[in-house]
Amino acid sequence: MSMLAVFNQKGGVGKTTTAFNLAAAMRRDNVHPLMIDLDPQCHLTMLSGAQTQLGTSLYGFYKGEKYLTDLIQQLPNGLNLIPSHIELCKIDMLLGKETKIATKLKHAIHDEMLATPDMPIIMDCCPMLGVLSVNAIVASERVLVPVAADFLSYQGAVQLTNTLQGLEAVLKRPIKRRYVLTRFNERRKFVKDIIGKLQDTFGDDLCQTRIHESASLAEALACGKDVFSYNPASRAAKDYANLFDELVSSGFLPIGD
């Protein structure tokens, strides 16, 4: 099975875009993933064009009113989604002090037998370390960190590494992770310096694939489509196909296991 949390504590780095298009890359390769939107901003839900109300969103699961399987929606592009809702922003306040809250999502995925070899799970996390993001990291054991090609994003990635190392100490196990460079434009100043810093800091955990800035990617998002549906011949589609292939070939995503 394969479960992946897409997480960064810094916003604006292409987190949701990466979760959405990586899932689409899987579907293009005849894999049918389940996306879970754990971000109260609901960007993945809105981007997917999903219909959601409070009781039919992930909020219903955390309030104990729904099973995860009750909430799955099949999207027109063949992907599956459990949608978010803005009320999820209250989960930390409502449930943050509950015992074993960190494992709630993990146990539900196991108990409802959602973690199957033919349905990988991609979790789009909110850009803060709270109940929802911890649930995703504990459940998945793998984290993909999108990092935009600028100095502040690099600093944010370093801070996130410290955060994950702290979680490893609490969980008493390693958290597998990969960092992927997004919004890449080789014509910008200092890009080579940023790449050098990322390579020095993260070594083999830095993906070789780079997600370039792309008009097709921006246009696809504006239309509520993944890049493969919008323009399968685009550079952005090639980038996300390459990212999926790299994550699988390196063993980071054990698709089919």
UniProtKB/TrEMBL annotation:
Coiled coil: none
Segments forming domain AAA: 2-173
CDD domains assigned to the protein according to its UniProt record, in alphabetical order: ParAB_family
Highest rank taxon of the organism: Bacteria
Name of this chain's protein: ParA family protein
